[in-house]
Design a protein that fits this description.
Helix content: 40-55%
Oligomer: single chain
Mean pLDDT: 90
Shape: globular
CATH architecture of the largest domain: Orthogonal Bundle
Number of domains: 3
Distance between the termini: 71 Å
Length: about 450
């Protein structure tokens, strides 16, 4: 009995000795980097991990391989480590993911820290990590519109406006609704991204010239200025880059060139005169897309009930919506749907915890399109296969159908499926209803009026 107690005490002393918290005199970034290193995060969450010697042992090999593949699929820690070393901003999504797993104590996994005593999160390490997240968020992503209570939330209220050139906005608005950008003068930007229909067309796939149908669901143009890239696969870095794509896409707007578009617009003497007054260099791809982008910067929908709640109006949400927000965070939705856009800040794999495409009854070998392959279509990097820019949840109650493939008609089904495929959890009907009610509170105001959708819902 005495010998057993001595062993336990000895193990406890050893554990404390090897699992020390970082020296608090070190810079905050160095403390956080040490916690990540002690936790062995790079073993499972990087492309080329420096694995321990026993990783090749017969029994350990398959277990470790599975953890490494799954860990890297979920989260690549290398950009965070690089940012810490350089003193730069860690991405909002990375912050939210680290904050959630630290707060929940889910990382590192027990199977890892039982073999690596110095890796588990002690209370001291947890406190340091969570405080670092709070300070880093305040430094690089200040939540100045929120009241003090909600300053450290992973989401933020939308600003009311962005700085724009009003003369360019007027031209951009006209161009956004101008069918002359299409080859047969029948399709405009607004055809698929209607201002009166929440910035979408509510179709699974949009219809282009000559009745052609595309292969991916049209995302909303509202609040698109806050996306970190444009398109589901991120192939456009800016709003102007995005505006240059559809006019020349043979399925969408089908113009032969921007020279053709410019010639048609130049034939309109009144419009050409107005355009030259703002853009002396004349009508061309750069100026046309710049004007459209300037207009899209005004498509902001602030002051939804949730924004008002974050700003301090506790009456803006119902009790059920408050509970829905809590569930939204509990189910890790807020680790990807972050920031003022509540999305649009990272690429995430569709089907992290279950095979979405297999369940959709698509033949993986021959049935997937480039659109289904997501970011991989642009990079050819295997980790990017089935990885998409996270969509915004702003006005999501109005932007059906859902997902990149437009395969889901109702918000309730989309919520339930996200829990299953992204988190590996099953929401009950009551939880789904509460989260849905919360998402209803994300419908904001455009030009002072609550956004609506004139399309009848299926």
């Amino acid at each position: 009995m005495m010998a057993g107690a001595v062993v336990v005490v000895g193990l406890a002393i050893t554990y404390r000795a090897v699992n020390k918290a970082p020296d608090t005199s070190l810079p905050a970034n160095e403390q956080m980097a040490q916690i990540l290193e002690d936790g062995g995060c790079a073993f499972c969450h990087t492309a080329n991990p420096d694995l321990p010697f026993y990783a090749s042992w017969p029994v350990a090999s398959s277990l470790i391989k599975g953890h490494v593949e799954d860990g890297y699929k979920m989260f690549d820690v290398q950009p965070m480590m690089d940012a810490l070393a350089a003193g730069e901003a860690v991405g909002e999504v990375d912050l939210a993911k680290v904050e959630k797993c630290v707060a929940d104590g889910t990382m590192p996994m027990a199977s890892y820290y039982l073999a690596h005593w110095g890796s588990s999160l002690t209370q001291a390490k947890t406190d340091i990590a969570l405080n670092w997240v709070k300070e880093h968020r305040a430094q690089f992503y200040p939540n100045e519109l929120a009241c003090e209570e909600f300053r450290n939330e992973p989401v933020r209220p939308l600003p009311s406006s962005l700085e724009v050139n009003e003369a360019k906005v007027a031209l951009g608005k006209a161009l956004y609704h101008d069918t002359r950008l299409s080859g047969d003068n029948t399709v405009s930007c607004a055809t698929c991204h209607g201002i009166e229909t929440a910035g979408v067309d509510n179709k699974q796939y949009s219809e282009g010239i000559a009745g052609q149908v595309g292969g991916i669901n049209a995302p909303t143009s509202y609040n698109a200025a806050f996306n970190f890239v444009q398109f589901w696969d991120g192939r456009a870095a800016t709003l102007a880059d995005q505006a240059a794509g559809p006019p020349l896409n043979p399925v969408e707007m089908g113009s032969a060139s921007f020279d053709e578009i410019a010639a048609k617009l130049a034939a309109d003497e009144e419009f050409a005169s107005q355009f030259l007054a703002v853009y002396p260099e004349g009508l061309n791809e750069k100026t046309i897309t710049d004007a459209i982008a300037e207009y899209e910067k005004t498509l902001i929908t602030p002051d939804c009930p949730f924004d008002l709640y974050l700003k301090g109006d506790k009456e803006a949400l119902t009790a059920e919506q408050v509970e829905g927000y809590a569930l939204f965070k509990d189910y890790k939705c807020a680790t990807c749907h972050t920031g003022e856009l509540m999305g649009g800040k990272s690429y995430e794999m569709m089907g992290q915890r279950a095979n979405y495409f297999e369940d959709r009854e698509v033949n993986v070998k021959s049935g997937l399109t480039d659109a289904d392959n997501g970011r991989w279509a642009q990079t050819q990097i295997e980790r990017d296969r089935y990885r998409f820019k996270t969509p915004t949840l702003r006005n999501v109650a109005l932007t059906w159908p859902y997902y990149h493939d437009g395969s889901v008609q109702t918000l309730e089904e989309a919520i339930s499926m996200m829990a299953e495929y992204q988190v590996g959890s099953k929401m009950n009907d009551n939880e789904v209803a509460k989260v849905k009610t919360f998402l209803d509170a994300l419908t904001g105001k455009y030009q002072g009026q609550t956004l609506t959708n004139s399309n009848p819902k299926n």
